Predict the 3D structure of the following.
Amino acid sequence: MAVRAITETYDFPSRSRQELYGDDQLVHVLWKGNPLLCAAATFRAPRAMPFGEFLAGLIDPWAGSDPDYRPGAGRGWTLDGAAFDPSPEASLAELGVGHKSLLTFEA
Amino acid sequence: MQYELRQQVIEPRRKTFQYLIERNGDKPASRYEEGTIDVQPTENFHYRPLWDPAHELYDESYSALRLTDPYSFLDPRQYYYAPYVTTRAQLHDGFGRTLEYLEGRGLLARLPDGWRTLLAELVLPLRHYESGAQLISVNGARFAYGASVEQCLSYAAFDRIGLAQMLSRVGFALADGGDELLTAAKQQWLEATPLQGLRRIVEELLVEPDWAVGVIGLDLVDRLLYPLLYRHLDEAALTDGAGPYSLIAQHPASWYVDQRKWLDHLLATWVADPEHGARNADVLTGVVEAWLPKAEAAVTAYATAVEAAVGTDAAATVSTLAVRVRADFTALKGDS
Amino acid sequence: MAKKLSMKKRYSALTRDLDWTPSYVDPEKVFPYTSFEGIKIHDWAKWEDPFRLTVDSYYKYQAEKDKRLYAVLDGFAQSQGHLSLSDAKYLNSMKLFLQGVTPLEYAAHRHFAFLARHYNGPGPRFAALCQSIDELRHTQTEIHTLSTYNKYYGGMHSWPSQFDRVWYLSVPKSFFDDAMSAGPFEFLIAISFSFEYLLTNLLFVPFMSGASFNGDLPSMTFGFSAQSDESRHMTLGLEAIKFLLEQDEANVPIIQAWIDKWFWRGYRLVALIAQMIDYMLPRKVMSWQESFELYFEEQMLNGLFKDLEFYGIKPPRHVEHAIAEKEILSHQVYWGLYSFSFAAAFTTTVPDAEHQDWLRAQYPGTFDKHYQPLWDKAAKIQADGGRFFFQGLPQLCQVCQIPMLFTEPGDSTTICQREREYQGERYHFCSDGCQWIFDREPEKYVQAWLPVHQIFQGNCGGPSVPEVLAWYGIQDGDGGEYVGSADHVDWERWHAAAPVRS
Amino acid sequence: MTASSVRTVGLDLQESSEDTRRVVEAIEQDNDDVVVTQIPGLVKIQAPGQLVIRRETVESLLGRPWETHEFQLAIVSYYGHIAEWDDDEIVIKWDH
């Protein structure tokens, strides 16, 4: 269904579109089954960033909000709903992690 | 048994809100200031209006008249809601007492015929003028930029409905409680020649896209109509044995004095603006050139009918008033 | 003998008879905004004026109400009344109120002025005009009521700019921006009907009753005083919906879709109220669940919607999800605020033992099972010298803009995630309700100014938390943990000086 | 009609003033099966079907003239539909 406006066109760009982040993008990460972290986190990361760096530099410090978290403990990863087995060396772009993709893990 | 609180002086952390501290330093602020300054949102609006995608929800470009800082204009009356309704409750209470007195003594029935005709056929129809004035003012209440300007316009809009109701109540009183004179007055407004200029200008101002042009255009009419009706005719009534007219006129007249205070100050603030002042003055000149001749023609036609009813020099009064309005606008620019 | 007109006839002569149809200009141009939404009005004269209040009576009663209110405010300030609140942390609820609700009153003031100008019918125009200046009253009486507290406590000093900038305040702001940017009929259904009639009791009544119970006489007085205007506004909402439904059958599906949208939009907004009622009031009046059952389920679903059935209107879409959430909503939202209060202009804290007992008693089915363990863990972290915070920025719902902390319907342990791709970009939603709203008008919601995304774009003062907090105008001690905060320390100091016997 | 199909309507009034207490009494006099509950700061009044506030009754209890507009100073909230608000009475009921 389309919006009903007084003018024929009512068209404004997304205020979160990827080009606003240059070579970077936003990535959402959800720790499933841990209610201590009430929601998924959003990170800004270069598309060329290797997954290992993303994990160690961004996810681990955040997941460490829970004192019981051990760095690298994540398993059972999914990417946008599909099972996902990332190689630490591959970049986010190579792994198919896109702008505002949702990664989930359990620990 | 006696208790006493150990004396303790609690120093406040701050004396007012941060937005006023930044403007004026940390000193106590008035309720008017706390309830007005910086209250309107200014940034990060989420969605463009479906009814006007070219603008933001609050947008300075809704008028050609701009202020560098919208709060360089503050209401000299310092009306926030409570003093506003309190003052107006007194105005309407006073009007109600006047009407009660006139009705109680049967004084309206003793009006000279010409004055009765004036009230019924020329003054009562102006309740529709007030109703149009309300729409023009409330448009400014939505589209003006900044809570100080729009607040004055909001109250002015409500005032106009109040004025329309005052006139309507005169209509009830003249008809002994019935509404037949009001029905007739509406026909006058719609059809009588002396009123058509006024109706036309109100309708044209209703479709004026710049809210401020609408408000100033209306004010140009007010500047001719109010002094004519409630000052010139007030004096004529007293010499002509139409005291009840004067008793009624005092109430809209006192409202008009109040209305001038904020509006004159707004005009002066526009012209004095450090950044937009010169441009604002040009815009105002354009508005006066476009609308004052129409206003003068409309009110003169009306005044001619007034003369026919009560025989004063109403039309000449209008041209004197128009000269003064022009001079006031010239002086306004000279002051800056 | 004077003829006396009935109140109805007199009122009509004083208000709607003032109107005329313009002939010197095109009437369509005088009212340009009332056709694009597809609502059909055949006869504006069918509008029934529910409150026949003339201008002189309006001034008289409003002046009387304000006289009473300001007398209370002055007396309270003179007697240092703030010292007799139940506790300084009570004021967290009023901080959120000033930051998040007062600006909505102001927005309503401005946009009812739009309706007061742009409806074709004089009846609804006059009702809107009254509401416009009533809402200005509410804005100002709230500011003036809370002004006293602002002098002695944190978090209230910068509310107007915070409404434009701070992450959690984009929830109320986007809600009202959504309504204001809609056409004049949708605005009326959104605010007058869905918000004022359907949901506002949930906001004001338990909350103001809570103010009374917690020694906040000024807020109780302004709240009840504002509500007396609100009852007129509710009437406008109900009259409006009946009028629109009766005008043309083709209006019914349009109105139904607006009810569906605005119920959910409003319900998500009052999630902030749910946590206030259950977690921010030191002395409790009633739980969120009780207020929801009383003010929404009993009065609206079993009362109002039975009435609207007559027109073919059904209860709002997704209402079953709201009902299913009533035992978990306040806990989830407060836990979220607890996690992020390092970036807020209010403080949060672990509920004390007595408070937890109350929560347990009110929510026997959910508190022990799901939320007690969280508070135990938070308390343990605190006992070890730390304080639990979510050390990152949360994923936000594209529509309601609340962090995506809500759970799947019927499964209170799985975070609900909904996703849509629109013009090559992914968008996420907290619920079926929010996703449905996006799907109707994606062109609108792609414009959302999502605080987290804006921080990452560098539009909020800088990349670090201190820079963002400075841009938010949050001062030292405004946010974070209540225990040890500036308000807590001051409160303890002021009350250490106990009354002494002479 | 079963009992449960009669929907209630209701009013929340400020409990603070002496005048309001008389209004509550008037409502109790003029309506059957009224349930009055107190919550902090408030009086909650509910009745099956409809609620009427009559000027005459309020005036006799107050011992002075009372305009129905004055009800505004007492009302906090209501549910139902204000079917009538004129010089003599205020009626709250559901329409359908």
Notes: The CA atoms of residues 19 and 62 of chain D lie 7 Å apart. Chain D has a mean pLDDT of 88. The radius of gyration of chain D is 13 Å.
